């Protein structure tokens, strides 16, 4: 008998890995788990068989399995032995950082597998770069001395960062989760952003992001990351190799996209080019602090002035009527003229910087950052002027504005860079299809050949869930939501379709809520910290615009879900481009997106067989025409309230 020590089962000479894996999975489901008191579910056995075929064929599988089918446990049981067999970690890409924390939390599925099967699983987290502290930005923020909480972050930094101790004492630090009390705005002052040139940074070897990256690359079994980070890895891996850097992620044996219906949005985000109103002047300041020629200084002043005029023209011709966060930009003559003027000046500055660099009067680190950013602005200008089908919009945040440019559709790039690889690729979610039709998702992602299955939840929804659809207008909605929150005895999740809607409730109606319940708003603290607080208080209220999926809070702590409005996609340039290239925009773009997201929101309520609770869906006058479509995807027959 040949025994492979790292595998959780023996391999014999006359048995293939897949045969041994299938036998072991059968033992786990039919013998080991029942002996440990876990209930055997037909849905989970069916899913396990489908997963076995996907791993054996190295194919793409849409695994749609309702809440409670144990889909996470099933794909982990295959991923761990497969990673050890191939010698490469399996990569699990979650929709966001919240889901990453849910997967590795105490009493989560990974710990269950370790406890039930006596396994020690080497799992490591690879979070997006924005989730890590930037030492350079922290120094700048704390030098102002006007924020005590940021000063506390500085005090938490390990001693070796300041040069005390040898490299053997280094360990990963600087994760967003380590600073839970910082709100989103405070975190943006000290976290990594795209203006940081890590390769040239003088403290990169002591940087928390660098140390975390070295840590997760050595994972033996599983690396867990976000969709955003996985897609950033895909788009940057070739460029990083050309520059002599390692890709963000190692080569994986298999990829599992948890909440896989959201992958398209991560792909779009990873491909965007962003240019902000404030950044150019901040970047060029790095040059003016050096001993450069007067001619170059005058050119820099001119570019800053032209850049402001360029953004003024863009803002002037942006769409402010739709109310979307992404404001469409019209290619007006004024915008094009200003774009060409700025492009010519930046081209001239880049030529002058070549001469300046030969004089060795500019700090090499500063020069590299400036040149890279100017190249990015030039690329944005080219796309804006040439009108090659790119989607362009304007975003506003506080006093700043950002121009964002991305390809119209990402399916061709995904088809080539992600789904042409011959490795097992699993999409896992409770909602991947609309009425068991997977074509909407497959087409959006550029997937031509795939297997798919759909199994329903084993939970008794008729017994444990009631759904009420409220037909009301905007003036009454907030008051009715406040009444529902005040009268409920357990915890409530209040879901909004945008940050603006969340703020509208916060400032318009939260004062009507009784003080006996804790009230949490997304954005006030680090998200997983808020989730943990919400879970531990059985009568709290959590208002969120992102947690339509991924939130797993069983019991009384989440026994009421209130859906403020239907989660239709926004009227922004990204979705307008999809609508424009669709034969039936409403039924091919808007409605499938809304119904998938609505099912996810409803799915936050019942997480175990003993959970009970209520769902309240509010429909305004314009939304009431979709009543039949909504009723068709609900797990129970709703009550209609007027």
Automatic annotation (TrEMBL):
Record keywords, A-Z: ATP-binding, Helicase, Hydrolase, Nucleotide-binding
InterPro entries registered for this protein in UniProt: ATP-dep_Helicase_C, DinG/Rad3-like, Helic_SF1/SF2_ATP-bd_DinG/Rad3, P-loop_NTPase
- Per the database record, which ranges form the Helicase ATP-binding domain? 30-304
Asked if the record carries the keyword ATP-binding, the reply is yes
What family is reported? Belongs to the helicase family. DinG subfamily.
This entry's Gene Ontology molecular function terms read:
ATP binding; DNA helicase activity; hydrolase activity, acting on acid anhydrides, in phosphorus-containing anhydrides; nucleic acid binding
Q: What is the lineage of its organism?
A: Bacteria, Bacillati, Bacillota, Bacilli, Bacillales
| Domain of life of the source | Bacteria
Please list the GO biological process terms of this entry: nucleobase-containing compound metabolic process
- Identify one Pfam family in the record: Helicase_C_2
Q: What is this protein called?
A: ATP-dependent helicase
């Amino acid at each position: 008998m040949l025994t492979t020590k790292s595998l959780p089962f023996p391999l014999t000479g006359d048995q293939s890995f897949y045969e041994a894996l299938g036998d072991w999975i059968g033992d786990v489901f039919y013998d080991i788990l029942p002996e440990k008191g876990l209930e055997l579910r037909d849905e989970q056995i069916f899913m396990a068989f489908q997963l076995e075929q996907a791993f054996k064929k190295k194919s793409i599988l849409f695994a749609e399995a309702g809440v409670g089918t144990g889909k996470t446990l099933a794909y982990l049981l295959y991923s761990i032995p497969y990673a050890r067999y191939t010698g490469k970690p399996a990569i699990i890409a979650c929709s966001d950082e919240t889901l990453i924390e849910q997967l590795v939390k105490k009493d989560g599925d990974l710990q269950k597998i370790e406890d039930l099967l006596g396994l020690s699983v080497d799992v490591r987290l690879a979070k997006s770069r924005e989730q890590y502290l930037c030492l350079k930005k922290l120094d700048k923020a704390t030098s102002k001395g006007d924020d005590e909480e940021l000063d506390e972050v500085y005090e938490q930094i390990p001693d070796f960062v300041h040069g005390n101790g040898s490299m053997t004492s280094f360990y990963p630090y600087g994760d967003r989760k380590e600073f839970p009390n910082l709100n989103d705005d405070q975190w943006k002052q000290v976290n990594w952003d795209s203006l940081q040139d890590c390769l040239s940074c003088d403290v990169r070897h002591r940087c928390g992001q660098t140390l975390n990256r070295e840590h997760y690359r050595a994972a033996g079994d599983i690396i867990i990351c976000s969709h955003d980070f996985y897609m950033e890895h895909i788009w940057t891996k070739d460029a990083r190799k050309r520059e002599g850097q390692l890709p963000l992620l190692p080569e994986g044996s298999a990829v599992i996209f948890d909440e896989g219906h959201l992958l398209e949005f991560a792909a779009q985000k990873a491909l965007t080019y962003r240019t902000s109103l404030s950044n150019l002047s901040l970047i060029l300041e790095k040059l003016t602090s050096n001993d450069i020629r007067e001619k170059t200084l005058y050119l820099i002043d001119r570019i800053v002035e032209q850049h402001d005029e360029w953004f003024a023209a863009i803002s002037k011709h942006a769409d402010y009527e739709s109310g979307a966060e992404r404001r469409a930009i019209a290619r007006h003559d004024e915008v094009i003229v200003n774009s060409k003027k700025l492009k010519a000046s930046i081209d001239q500055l880049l030529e002058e910087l070549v001469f300046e660099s030969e004089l060795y009067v500019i700090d090499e680190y500063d020069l590299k950052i400036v040149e890279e950013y100017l190249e990015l602005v030039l690329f944005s200008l080219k796309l804006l002027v040439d009108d090659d089908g790119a989607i362009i919009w304007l975003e506003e945040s506080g006093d700043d504005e950002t121009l964002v440019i991305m390809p119209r559709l990402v399916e061709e790039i995904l088809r080539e860079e992600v789904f042409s690889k011959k490795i097992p690729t699993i999409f896992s979610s409770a909602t991947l299809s609309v009425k068991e039709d997977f074509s909407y998702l497959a087409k959006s992602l550029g997937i031509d050949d795939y297997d798919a299955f759909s199994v329903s939840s084993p939970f008794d929804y008729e017994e444990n869930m009631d759904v009420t659809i409220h037909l009301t207008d905007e003036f009454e909605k907030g008051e009715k939501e406040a009444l529902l929150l005040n009268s409920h005895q357990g915890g409530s999740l209040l879901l909004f379709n945008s940050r603006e809607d969340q703020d509208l409730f916060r400032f318009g109606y939260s004062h009507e809520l009784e003080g006996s319940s804790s009230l949490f708003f997304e954005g006030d603290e680090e998200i997983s910290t808020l989730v943990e607080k919400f879970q531990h208080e059985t009568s709290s209220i959590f208002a969120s615009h992102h947690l339509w999926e991924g939130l797993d809070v069983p019991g009384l702590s989440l026994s009421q879900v209130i859906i403020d409005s239907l989660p239709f996609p926004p009227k922004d340039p990204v979705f307008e481009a999809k609508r424009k290239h669709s034969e039936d925009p409403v039924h091919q773009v808007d409605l499938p997106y809304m119904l998938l997201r609505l099912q996810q929101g409803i799915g936050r309520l019942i997480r175990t067989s003993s959970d009970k609770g209520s769902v309240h869906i509010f429909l305004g006058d314009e939304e009431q025409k979709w009543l039949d479509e909504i009723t068709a995807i609900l797990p129970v027959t709703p009550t209609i309230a007027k």
